[in-house]
Amino acid sequence: MSRDTARAATQFFGGRICLDFANTVDWRTSGAPQELIPDYAAFLSWSERRGTLLPRAAAALRRLGKQEDVAAARVLREAYALRAAIWSAAEALRGAGTADLAAFNRMLATLPAQPRLVGHGARFAYDLRGRDLREPLWPVLWSLTAVLTSEDADRVGCCRAEGCGWLFVDESPNRTRLWCSSAVCGNRERARRAYSKRRAGR
Ligand SMILES: [Zn+2]
Fold first, then answer.
1. In terms of C-beta distances under 8 Å and separation of at least 24 residues, what long-range contacts does 189-197 make, across chains too?
2. Which stretches in the chain have pLDDT values below 70?
3. Chain centroid, CA 192 distance in Å
4. What is the pTM of this model?
5. Residue 164 C-alpha to ligand 1 middle, in angstroms?
6. N or C: which end of the chain has fewer CB within 10 A?
7. Domain spans of the chain?
8. What does the alpha-carbon distance between residue 28 and residue 129 come to, in Å, rounded to a whole number?
9. pLDDT for 158-184, tens place per residue?
10. How far is the CA of 113 from the centre of ligand 1 (A)?
């Protein structure tokens, strides 16, 4: 368990917003999962790094979240529930269990219309204004509906490294992607396997 949480919170290997959001628990399938968004402020920082909230909106929500801490805590619980629902949807897509559509549909029912886009560097961003504490949830839900209703759904994979549990869209031509990141989990697993081979050969 060497991946440090500050670094893990800046690693976006999922390829889609909703999967990167699902990856905000490090070592998800291990005996010692690590929470990467422990509070509402951390959820905002994650959204800002992932580009789903502009700095101005994140700053406004940070102030609002401090004033309305009970409501902010409620949004965080909602975020955790959404994340768990994404994990089970990914399992279902990969052939195990069933997705909880009722949970998604309840959340979709509360979604506003998508806002207009604004230029952001070389790309574009949602023009969210930082007025509603639930704003960081919305881009995750918009991304989720896009993944579930597109060919991405056939390509959702899970890292093979023991205990990692990070999800991604496998865009390799033959769908042979094994790791969330070849440089992180891939290297560690290769080292681990070489080590046990050496031990076995002794
Ligand atoms: Zn991994």
1. 189/160, 189/161, 189/162
2. 1-3, 202
3. 26
4. 0.92
5. 5
6. C
7. 5-154
8. 32
9. 999 999 999 999 999 999 999 999 998
10. 34
